[in-house]
DNA sequence: TTGCTAATCCCTA
DNA sequence: TAGGGATTAGCAA
């Protein structure tokens, strides 16, 4: 019997080979290569302590031979060590050694140790393969874990095992290998996970009580310490790591592994700093619809999908770890800034006295800066020394619902359309979050805007800011803006203005209107503003809340009227609905172009001119008009100036928009009154309209010309914009044709009160005239701007004469207006 | 009680 | 039908 033969061989050795090692049991010496020296040890040998000791002694005595396999324990790592005999041998051999006698006892095949009826018994007698067998099996396994049938047959013959046994052995060995590999990786992952969790907890703790590394005081958001920045970077990295590890661990464990052992409040990690900071701010907020407590609002980043914002901004996080960290850090900073800004906005919108004090002149609300600095911690750092503050708040009812207003504000195109006189240019530069559940709640985006006051004496305000939208309750929304220049590295060094938390809180009213509370708060370099406009700007009447709300009310009223069926009309020509729409669109373009010509925003590339004999307060700019069907081609010259006039804004507006009085200042009128051909009302105030004028005293040259005029007025200011247009082209427009091909160059006037206490809509017809003295209450600041085609060849050179002509035209027009109004008095 | 090993059962490609 | 996963039985620590 072959098995017997094997037994005979196995007893042949004398156990001469030995290896080093300390453990008595595990380190039984044997020749790992098998061969004549190998010796399966018997169970009886093992059970004798004396022998064990003797063996150890022998080993220490430096018995030769052997592979010196001294495996200590059964660490899975052992499998990674290669080597002749395989690392896991010792223990196995230990088993085999002990069962060696069993093997012998069993005799015959392992499948049928006691069976003589030919039927395999349900339970076999326990046995293990001999060390030699295992050794051979291991050796082959190392070379080929998947032997084919032939190899297995070969092996089974050689080892006197059944082919089934060989097959099972390989099967089990593979399974074992896999299990141990998994277990090994799992343990590494678990360790890593524990480590990360510990680090995370310590960071949480650190962020819960942030301390300024310099002064030891509580750290503030606007003043992020280097250490905190490092913590944030580290935190972002750890979060990513943790997610990854948990995903892997979950894969191996076969069940999802939570990144947080206990459920944590959603904002405790990410908003640790902000949270504390906010709670400091919460003192004594007035009641009302809004919850003034930030903690009461769902403000945690996970709620806003910021952590998953990689889907919104796919460029960075997933693809590049380093960039991802930066990006994630930046987003986290933006979010904190946005949350702080939102909190501040709500506070400014809700709190009345002593934060806001109503001024005696004009009833405007003036910010009490002492109170402000007492209750609000600056979230974008301290005001630059040479800057001045401008803060304003205005509340008004607007015929728009909160959702529509929010949508308008969050869409840069709609926003610009809503405030055409105030926004020269705007764009959304980055969307950090689009909001939750298909709404704008939680939407966070980076925006760029150029804000304007229509005067060449007031430079455009260029601002980069975060805009953050939050729903505070059913029908209650807030949209806040805050400059990001302090935390953005690639901001131009020169920014003349920074917006502190500004924006609006809008609450739906039952009658379809919304109650809008607007707060504007900015710090800016006053030095670049002409003295004439400084009081106005500083009072917040140039860029302030009053102007935003007034414009919003006017525009929404216009939209409401246009959408309603009962359009008040008094035009003398039959204009179709589509014609009205086309005409309004054309007028809108005209007014937009007018504004762009006054303020030299980057919409057009104007070149500023300085020429002798040009009044220093008249700014002349030129640009080439090429390939724009909406303009005549050639050299376009824009001249604009602003002057103070001792008449009320209302009176000035009424004078300039009156077609009957036009001959007093407009050379296009040919010295006679003009006639209104068409009139489209844009609001309840008759001053808000688009009209088409025709000179009564037409000469042959101008017989084909009409004047398209748009006027608008609200409590913050008024506009009269006009442009000569071609009669055939206007016919097309009035019949609903495309207005884009009507070439026009607009001119006109922008009127604002000359300072605080002089609201446009709050005065009587004649009450505003300040007795003719300069600088007194009730005067107006008038901006006159002309855009004129000086040469129809775009490549032509601009002549000094044409510049002087335009300069003279503008000065002459101002003189005529002054004279007309004075004689009128 | 736990871990290891040989073997079995059952499912799937 | 071979191979692999799940499971079981026997044993040792």
Automatic annotation (TrEMBL):
<dbReference type="InterPro" id="IPR001356">
    <property type="entry name" value="HD"/>
</dbReference>
<dbReference type="InterPro" id="IPR002913">
    <property type="entry name" value="START_lipid-bd_dom"/>
</dbReference>
<dbReference type="InterPro" id="IPR009057">
    <property type="entry name" value="Homeodomain-like_sf"/>
</dbReference>
<feature type="compositionally biased region" description="Gly residues">
    <location>
        <begin position="60"/>
        <end position="71"/>
    </location>
</feature>
<keyword id="KW-0371">Homeobox</keyword>
<comment type="similarity">
    <text>Belongs to the HD-ZIP homeobox family. Class IV subfamily.</text>
</comment>
<dbReference type="GO" id="GO:0030154">
    <property type="term" value="P:cell differentiation"/>
</dbReference>
<dbReference type="Pfam" id="PF01852">
    <property type="entry name" value="START"/>
</dbReference>
<keyword id="KW-0804">Transcription</keyword>
<dbReference type="GO" id="GO:0008289">
    <property type="term" value="F:lipid binding"/>
</dbReference>
<keyword id="KW-0539">Nucleus</keyword>
<feature type="region of interest" description="Disordered">
    <location>
        <begin position="1"/>
        <end position="20"/>
    </location>
</feature>
<feature type="compositionally biased region" description="Basic and acidic residues">
    <location>
        <begin position="89"/>
        <end position="99"/>
    </location>
</feature>
<keyword id="KW-0805">Transcription regulation</keyword>
<feature type="compositionally biased region" description="Low complexity">
    <location>
        <begin position="1"/>
        <end position="10"/>
    </location>
</feature>
<feature type="domain" description="Homeobox">
    <location>
        <begin position="120"/>
        <end position="180"/>
    </location>
</feature>
<dbReference type="Pfam" id="PF00046">
    <property type="entry name" value="Homeodomain"/>
</dbReference>
<dbReference type="InterPro" id="IPR057993">
    <property type="entry name" value="HD-Zip_IV_C"/>
</dbReference>
<protein>
    <submittedName>
        <fullName>Putative homeobox-leucine zipper family protein / lipid-binding START domain-containing protein</fullName>
    </submittedName>
</protein>
<dbReference type="InterPro" id="IPR017970">
    <property type="entry name" value="Homeobox_CS"/>
</dbReference>
<feature type="DNA-binding region" description="Homeobox">
    <location>
        <begin position="122"/>
        <end position="181"/>
    </location>
</feature>
<keyword id="KW-0238">DNA-binding</keyword>
<dbReference type="GO" id="GO:0000981">
    <property type="term" value="F:DNA-binding transcription factor activity, RNA polymerase II-specific"/>
</dbReference>
<feature type="coiled-coil region">
    <location>
        <begin position="174"/>
        <end position="209"/>
    </location>
</feature>
<dbReference type="GO" id="GO:0005634">
    <property type="term" value="C:nucleus"/>
</dbReference>
<feature type="region of interest" description="Disordered">
    <location>
        <begin position="55"/>
        <end position="130"/>
    </location>
</feature>
<feature type="compositionally biased region" description="Basic residues">
    <location>
        <begin position="121"/>
        <end position="130"/>
    </location>
</feature>
<keyword id="KW-0175">Coiled coil</keyword>
<feature type="domain" description="START">
    <location>
        <begin position="327"/>
        <end position="561"/>
    </location>
</feature>
<dbReference type="Pfam" id="PF25797">
    <property type="entry name" value="PDF2_C"/>
</dbReference>
<dbReference type="InterPro" id="IPR042160">
    <property type="entry name" value="HD-Zip_IV"/>
</dbReference>
<dbReference type="GO" id="GO:0003677">
    <property type="term" value="F:DNA binding"/>
</dbReference>
